[in-house]
Description:
With 154 residues, the protein is α+β, with helices and mostly antiparallel strands. Helix content is 34%, strand content 27%. The protein has helices at residues 2-15, 28-43, 47-50, 59-67, 71-79, and strands at residues 85-92, 99-111, 120-134, 137-141. A four-stranded antiparallel β-sheet has the order 1-2-3-4. Helix 1 (2-15) packs antiparallel against helix 4 (59-67).
Amino acid sequence: xxxxxxxxxxxxxxxxxxxxxxxxxxxxxxxxxxxxxxxxxxxxxxxxxxxxxxxxxxxxxxxxxxxxxxxxxxxxxxxxxxxxxxxxxxxxxxxxxxxxxxxxxxxxxxxxxxxxxxxxxxxxxxxxxxxxxxxxxxxxxxxxxxxxxxxxxx
Length: 154
């Protein structure tokens, strides 16, 4: 049963056409909306929603992330008393640029990055989200699985 669900999610992510959402605009605030919506979907494990904010080449990484979520991970997420929060801390995406990035602080997200330990709810993590503009719309570009970055203590 679990294997069937994982296969279904993977196929859905690969075959799901990208949706044209109103939040995809060429302005930097449009980029911020894309980043926020992507992160909220991604870290809530709503990968089918997250994919609508991504480049075509990012689909394989979302499929990879979805295929590594297990029932025990979902139980950890469901049993959490804390709500997920996403905040864009820095945004480099000018309207005239074709690429950019955002630094995002995510609180109370599922941390399932170790195969030798059960998943936990991470209190806080910082993630770099790369962006590309296609046809005047900002999209998230994933070059690999998202990983929390260390913060500079300054």
